[in-house]
TrEMBL record:
The keyword Zinc is annotated on this UniProt entry: yes
Protein name: Succinylglutamate desuccinylase/aspartoacylase family protein
A Pfam family the protein falls into: AstE_AspA_cat
The keyword NADP is annotated on this UniProt entry: no
InterPro entries on file: AstE_AspA_cat (IPR055438), N-alpha-Ac-DABA-like (IPR043795), N-alpha-Ac-DABA_deacetylase (IPR053138)
Cofactor needs: Zn(2+)
Organism (species): Parvularcula mediterranea
Length: 311
């Protein structure tokens, strides 16, 4: 079992950090984030070691699939075994060669096909070191997300590796703002952990809003959905999020928010079946929406990205 990685050693000792992308093969945004990260001139002043693995699930990547050829989810297969399924062997190799030597990790993800995620950090915020990293990353919202059995995050943390999961954008798509937030966030964490010098001119990132709970609003009936809200919107309890109806507008049924919160994910498909997940709401404060708007403007003008844009 083989992995393609780039290892950058600094001239001085320091932490070992890995950054991984495409554990789900169709979540390609992490590949572009890592490509840009590898070209940042600030890495010339690196202390410690940076391990970059842009495509963990190469099998899913080349077939534009979330899963491995045997339909297993790699992110439910950790820590893996030396002998077993393809997923088990790949997970084992990644744990032994990448995670085990590392004290810090950032795993890059996007939403599934036909869904979109607001840039967000998911982490065990009960861990003080991890919470400090999540705050330094600088997204507008961070979720206190439970550790799932078999996930990279759970198994890395069990080995003492402080790890964040960055979620942004849609599978099989690049999102320029989400890419920029990802690159800048990783550099922020590297500065916070002493791997890079802090810049004199850079303002400290605004403290993200913390959410301990989120939920999906689901389709009450099958039909055609018209959405009235966008990612990053703040919604009040009872707010109208969209309506589902037949093709001629018959049997129109409203979809309303059960709680107030920030819109952190949504479906992009107008044709829905009863029970489909439509809108993902993080139960957090109203000012999170304003914080995300400010973050988008900041990465638009950041000189770090001069000449870098996907259109």
């Amino acid at each position: 079992m083989h992995l393609v990685a780039q290892v950058i050693h600094g001239k001085q000792d320091g932490p070992v950090m890995f950054v991984s992308g495409a554990i789900h093969g169709d979540e390609i945004i992490g590949v572009e984030i890592i490509r840009r990260l590898a070209e940042v001139k600030a890495l010339e002043k690196l202390k410690g070691t940076l391990i970059l693995v842009p495509v963990v699930n190469a099998y899913g990547f080349v077939t534009q699939s979330r899963y491995l050829p045997d339909r297993r989810d790699l992110n439910r297969s950790f820590p893996g075994t030396q002998r077993g399924s393809m997923a088990a062997q790949l997970a084992h190799t990644f744990m032994q060669e990448v995670v085990k030597p590392s004290s810090i990790g950032i795993d890059l993800h996007s939403a599934a096909v036909h869904r979109d995620n607001l840039p967000q950090i998911r982490a065990d915020l009960g861990n003080e070191e991890v919470e400090a990293m999540a705050t330094a990353f600088g997204t507008s919202v961070m979720l206190d997300a439970r550790l799932r059995d078999g996930s990279l995050r759970a198994e890395a943390q069990a080995l003492g590796c402080d790890i964040l999961l960055y979620e942004a954008g849609e599978a099989l798509r690049f999102d320029e703002t989400a890419i920029r937030i990802g690159v800048r966030g990783i550099l922020n964490v590297m500065r916070q952990r002493g791997m890079l010098p802090r810049t004199k001119t850079q303002k400290p990132p605004a403290k993200p809003l913390r959410s301990g709970q989120s939920h999906w609003e689901r389709a009450p009936i099958s039909g055609i959905m018209r959405a009235y809200v966008s990612l990053g919107d703040y919604v009040e309890e009872g707010a109208l999020l969209g309506v589902v109806s037949g093709p001629l507008g018959e049997e129109e049924t409203e979809v309303r928010a059960r709680t107030e919160g920030l819109m952190i994910g949504r479906t992009n498909l107008p044709i829905v079946n009863r029970g489909d997940a439509l809108f993902h709401i993080a139960e957090t404060a109203k000012k999170a929406a304003a914080a995300h708007d400010a973050l988008e403007k900041a990465v638009e003008v950041d000189p770090l990205f001069d000449g870098e844009e996907i259109v």
